[in-house]
Amino acid sequence: MKSSYHRGRRFIEKTASFTLIELLVVVVIIAILAALSTSAIGPIRASMQQTQCSNNMRQIGQGLFSYATEHDNTLPPVFSIKPSNASGQQDYWNWAIWSYVYPGTTPQWPNNDTQFSSKAVVKWSPNAFRCPSTSRGAIKAPTVSVLSDARMSYGLNNTMMLIDGSGTWQDMRTASIPLARMTRPGQTAMVLEASNAEAGFSVWGTTTGIIPHRSGANVLFFDGHVEWWSGSSIPAGSWSVYTNVFWRGL
């Protein structure tokens, strides 16, 4: 006759063996779930960044319209002076509207840097002029061969300023943009994702165009709404697109 001690020991051993198997099963399940969650994190993060970018653009649009209200219904020029003479970001359109995007404040470099090229700056304060996707490296548009290294997130479309009201060619970079010239604002791009402050039809298609979201980019239109466009659907790459309503607004 076996003692209760031996019976208890066998029970403990069996119970311990069963518990070990359970633990192994749990470990396997956790590993599988971890692998599944890891594969899902990327798309979720990308979707959140695209949404943040859209919100950035709407905020920028509100700033541009507020600026126009106080400047004879015109937007700021892409550059306040010729780019060859520009001394820094203070000459760009985004600094011109900073106080309209963030009322009561003025941009202070480098804390409010609007581009990612300042290598000395390790960490920036968040602001609407930087897309979270662009911060990890820009993906150039299909027609771009060599991307501008300014490493900005958003550029202003100034295509409509290439020819002035009298039909004369002008410096489209330093000309203010009248909103009244937009006959189809809901179809004409105002701000595009770009690596430089300028995003007219020519430069976007050759040097500044970026597509950081699902092989596409967010576009802010002159009526204030934002849409996602695939990189291949944005008309670019040749002079033939100059008259396209997407760029010129007529």
Gap from first CA to last CA = 102 Å
| Gross geometry | elongated
User: What gyration radius follows from the Cα positions, in whole Å?
Assistant: 27 Å
Average pLDDT taken over every residue: 81
H and E string:
HEHHEEEHEEH
The SS-based structural class is alpha+beta
Instruction: Give the uncertain stretches in residue-range form.
Output: 118-122
What percentage of amino acids are in beta strands? Answer: 5-15%
Please give the largest β-sheet.
4 strands, antiparallel
How many strand elements?
6
Total number of distinct structural domains: 1
Spatial strand order of the main sheet:
2-4-5-6
Q: Kindly state the percentage of residues in helix.
A: 25-40%
Q: What's the number of helices?
A: 5
What does this structure look like?
There is one protein chain. By secondary structure, the protein is α+β, with helices and mostly antiparallel strands. The protein has one domain (4-248). 34% of the residues lie in helices and 9% in strands. The protein has 5 helices and 6 strands; from the N terminus they run H-E-H-H-E-E-E-H-E-E-H. Strands 2-4-5-6 form a 4-stranded antiparallel β-sheet. A two-stranded antiparallel sheet has the order 1-3. A hairpin with a 4-residue loop joins strand 5 (216-221) and strand 6 (226-230). The longest helix is centred in the first third of the chain and has 66 residues, at 4-69. The model is unreliable at 118-122 (pLDDT under 50).
